[in-house]
Sequence to fold (289 residues):
Amino acid sequence: MENGIVNDYINIIEVFTKKIHLWIQLFIDKTPNIVIALLVFILGFYLSRLIKKIAIRILERRGVKPSSRIMLGNIISVLVVITFFMFSLNILDLENMFKTILAGAGVAGLAIGLALQGTLSNTFSGITLSFTKNIRIGHQIETMGYTGTIEDINLRTIKLKMADGNYVSIPNKLIVDNPMKNYSESDTANVSVTCGVGYESDLEQVKMLTETTIRKMMQQKELDTAISFYYTEFADSSINFIVYFTIPSKKLSESFSYKSEAIMAIKKCFDAHNINIPFPIRTVQMDKQ
Fold:
């Protein structure tokens, strides 16, 4: 029995020894391929860094935002490394291992994609906005009920500075999927003023005085403007109108300033000509019993 145990140990040692010799021989045979594969991978690593720098410079010249430039540069760098890693595996005749790794990565990528669906959606929307020429830092926009100046654009949100000094961050996906008004795209802006006059007013006179007042206000600033005047409705207490005029400005703050001046000038003119701007009133009729 003892001889049998000894023979078993001897057999195990022989098998292990043969495996060691086989692995050593395989390593010796594969040494040239291992060296070449290692050199290819190192070359790919350094090329990825070089290509990343070139890509970031090209994106910078195209006006892509800094955060998106860095992300796209990293993606390109990783793709280059993966490509050279594939070459290295082919040199080592390890295609099957690569297929296994690729299959595992696909499953992991699917799971991560489902878990980070919202984040990835905002990220890809941020990349889209990076290549959109009509959205830039400093532009004044209105979207989702918010109006302000773009202070920052990153891969998740757009940061707006409101007129009251507060900041609001809007997810990129909402910017892409919803309508947006960009006040900075045009060299001019239309300012609108709404008002109402009493039913006893001479509407022709109201129109003439309003247009004349706006025109004088703009002439004082040595500016010429197109004016459009429209009556809009018979309201409960007044006949309402809206007047539009154009100003040479991209800034929303200047639009507010011109509108404020126009309101004060129209009110002053109407007071001078005894034109009533009524406030809402209600007449109650009491029937006698």
Remarks:
- Strands lie at 140-143, 146-153, 157-162, 167-171, 180-182, 189-197, 227-234, 239-247.
- Residues 189-272 form a domain with the Alpha-Beta Plaits fold (CATH 3.30.70.100).
